[in-house]
Design brief:
GO biological process, one term: mismatch repair
Keywords: DNA damage, DNA repair, Endonuclease, Hydrolase, Nuclease
Bound molecules: adenosine-5'-diphosphate, magnesium ion
Structural class: alpha+beta
Mean pLDDT: 76
Radius of gyration: 32 Å
GO molecular function: ATP binding; ATP hydrolysis activity; ATP-dependent DNA damage sensor activity; endonuclease activity; mismatched DNA binding
Family: Belongs to the DNA mismatch repair MutL/HexB family.
Shape: elongated
Low-confidence stretches: 331-357, 362-499
Protein name: DNA mismatch repair protein MutL
Strand content: 15-25%
Largest sheet: 9 strands, mixed
């Protein structure tokens, strides 16, 4: 073994510099962060040959005193930190006092600076970290630092530099982030003599987004603003339909610092769950602001990662703020608040600890009124009870289900309500087998059960849809006024749908798939009936606290599955039970199915079970498996494109879409498409 000896300071400096200065973009980052910390309102960045030829950063900040110029280039020399205690409350972007030392160690640096109020400025030249003489010089107020011949004295690093174009692209991306992080500062970026970015510095994030990321991106954004306790979240997220192919457009700032964070990504994406197409990712420019004492920025040499003291709170703040913002958008019509929101279903997702209600009422105070979360069967719910108890009881769930069933024209031959099943050993709570905590289920009181209304028969078919009517009378009159629909009529303890808006007129259905409607404000809506119903089913299943109702098959079905599928399902019989399938081993991989969920066509039994097996095989976590099973159930129970639908079914779907409860199918596809009068007139060259 060679002898151990301490490295000389020059080699030590080069090693330290390597940690901070990895490539030209790291130099730009450090210099611009210094400019921001110096209180500048305008920063100009110029690079040549991807920064390998030259990097120049000019600011109009506070400048450096001539006497302190050489000190600024020493390692661990900083004006931003004094004591150990200061480390726990860093409010500046820089604090390590290493950047200027590191940059000058591996390049040739010139600095020209003048402090405000000083008649004269000063300049200094450094080569490989060795400073020359500080000289008096005329200079504009602020600081200009020029870095040439980066890595000229570290051939090993030089060898690994990528093409100039790759370095230019890296600096370009960085400049976008820096510009977005401080909309109050005007940033100009010039690459090889050509201006590539200019932000106005007017303090508006929207202006910075427009300038840095382009008009197309800016157009599809949804503003986000909210706070939870001392954590506030603001910025923009992409509309669910504008999902992107990668996460590259997820830009997060914490106290004005661009960072990469799996936590924030997870919180953002959780907000889009079931609203965005598979394989698509939301984009965002999100700024999280929290007390400097609640975040540790000293965890990464390049300061691109942080550690939050209260990760759960940060997650909740981002998640709920994004969710609220998405709720408000994409709604076909402003959803009138019909009743207080139900408590969100308790999800034990990654880092999620607070439900939406708690967030909004307690810790979280969104700056805008909290929207009502969609809840299944709003118009059929016994609103008084729900409002009082804040809980969906089993009784209500059952009634909703049966009423909804009849509303959608289903009359299963034999329905086994979960209550009967509960007499024997109580059915496990719906989600427990997949790691969800059992939901507390209020057992129905005997009187309640006696009072339970019999679900009405499907509504009679209003003639307007079956037989096309002549032109609709003006002023706007809905084709099927909701009051004519029996399904919303006078069930004891239930209130009818209270739509403050005029219900959309259903003009008809085309291709047995799309419902055409007209809204009072003169827009035409096309609704995909399967997608809408699938979403309604999905939300219902997800929010339910009980297994779905079942139908006992007169003749049990022997489901012949592949051996693999059969074995997998047999291992998960309790789970199937929770989803409404009563099955047993029939030997040879086959399952004997005695009961199926009431909403599912018995003919779909085998295909549903096959899809279940696929969900169980491919789901990466219990949570994902559960979601996928719910998707399958929701899809199978939905009316299909191509089916002949009862007008009463269509009315229910249209009302849901109009209310804004249903926007996207669980796979993120839109449920409704809007055509304005202007758009139509343009198509016909009238406008
Ligand atoms: P840090 O930013 O971590 O303090 P640096 O090595 O980046 O360390 O900078 C050292 C010091 O030089 C800073 O603390 C600051 O006082 C001063 N400085 C650097 N750049 C500028 C600038 N553009 N304007 C004013 N002061 C600057
Ligand atoms: Mg610095």
């Amino acid at each position: 073994m060679p002898h151990i000896q301490q490295l000389d300071s020059h080699v030590a400096d080069l090693i330290a510099a390597g940690e901070v200065v990895e490539r030209p973009a790291s130099v730009v980052k450090e210099l611009v962060e210094n400019a921001i910390d110096a209180g500048s309102s305008a920063v100009v960045v110029e690079i040549r040959r991807g920064g390998m030829g030259l990097i120049r950063v000019t600011d109009n900040g506070c400048g450096i005193a001539p006497a302190e110029l050489p000190t600024a280039f020493l390692r661990h020399a900083t004006s931003k930190l004094r004591t150990e205690a200061d480390l726990g409350k860093i409010g500046t972007l820089g604090f390590r006092g290493e950047a200027l030392a590191a940059i000058s160690a591996v390049s040739r640096v010139d600095i020209l600076t003048r402090q405000a109020g000083m008649a004269e400025g000063a300049s200094l030249h450094l080569e490989g970290g060795v400073p020359g003489q500080v000289e008096a010089a005329g200079a504009p107020e602020g600081t200009t630092i020029t870095v040439r011949d980066l890595f000229y004295n570290t051939p090993a690093r030089l060898k690994f530099m990528r093409k100039d174009s790759a370095e230019t692209a890296a600096v370009n991306g960085l400049m976008q982030h820096l510009a977005l992080s401080h909309p109050d500062i005007s940033f100009k970026f010039i690459k090889d003599g050509v201006e590539a970015l200019l932000t106005p510095g007017d303090g508006k994030l929207a202006s910075a987004v427009y300038a840095a990321l382009g008009r197309d991106f800016a157009r599809g954004l949804v503003p986000v603003s909210g706070s939870g306790g001392d954590i506030s979240v603001s910025g923009f997220v992409t509309a669910p339909l504008m999902g992107r192919g990668s996460r590259s457009m997820q830009v997060f700032f914490v106290n004005g610092r661009f960072i990469k964070s799996q936590l924030l990504t997870a919180a953002l994406e959780e907000g889009y769950r079931n609203q965005i197409m598979k394989g698509k990712f939301p984009g965002c420019v999100l700024s999280v602001t929290l007390p400097v004492t609640a975040v540790d920025v000293n965890v990464h040499p390049a300061k691109t990662q942080v550690k939050f003291a209260r990760e759960h709170d940060v997650f909740d703040a981002v998640y709920h703020t994004v969710l609220d913002a998405l709720d408000k958008t994409g709604a076909p019509a402003a959803a009138p608040a019909k009743e207080p929101p139900l408590p969100a279903p308790s999800r034990q997702d990654f880092f999620q600890t607070m439900d939406a209600k708690t967030f909004r009422q307690g810790g979280g105070k969104p700056q805008t009124p909290a929207p009502v979360r969609p809840a299944w069967n709003t118009e059929l719910r016994a609103s008084a009870k729900v409002a009082d108890s804040g809980q969906t009881s089993f009784y209500q769930t059952k009634r909703q289900a049966s009423a909804a069933q009849s509303a959608l024209g289903r009359a299963p031959s034999s329905v086994t309500a979960p209550s009967e099943r509960q007499q024997s050993p109580p059915a496990p709570a719906y989600r427990s087998a997949l790691g969800q905590p059992p939901a507390s289920v209020a057992a129905p009181a005997a009187e309640q059960r006696r009072e339970e209304p019999v679900a009405p028969a499907p509504a009679s078919v209003p003639a307007e849809i079956a037989t096309p009517q002549p032109a609709a009378p003006r002023p706007f009159v809905p084709a099927i006024p909701p009051e004519q629909l029996k399904l919303t009529e006078n069930l004891p303890g239930q209130t009818a749908l209270e739509t403050k808006e005029v219900p959309w007129r259903i003009a008809g259905e085309v291709l047995r798939t799309y419902i055409i409607c007209e809204s009072e404000d003169g827009c035409v809506w096309l609704i995909d009936k399967h997608a809408a119903h699938e979403r309604i089913n999905f939300d219902k299943l997800k929010n339910a606290q009980e297994p779905p109702m079942r139908q006992t098959l007169l003749v049990p079905i022997a489901a012949e599955l592949s051996r693999e599928d059969g074995a997998l399902l047999l291992e998960n019989l309790p789970l199937l039970e929770q989803f409404g399938f009563a099955c047993e081993d029939f030997g040879g991989g086959a399952l004997l199915v005695r009961e199926v969920p009431a909403d599912i066509d018995a003919a779909d039994t085998v295909s549903t079970l096959e899809e279940f097996a696929e969900c169980l095989r491919t789901g990466r976590s219990p949570d994902e498996k559960r979601e996928n099973l719910l998707h399958t159930m929701a899809c199978k129970a939905a009316i299909k494109g191509g089916w002949v639908s009862d007008p009463a079914e269509l009315r229910v779907l249209v009302d849901r879409v109009q209310s804004g409860e249903v926007k996207y199918c669980p796979h993120g596809r839109p449920v409704a498409v809007k055509l304005t009068r202007y758009e139509l007139e343009k198509m016909f060259h009238r406008a």
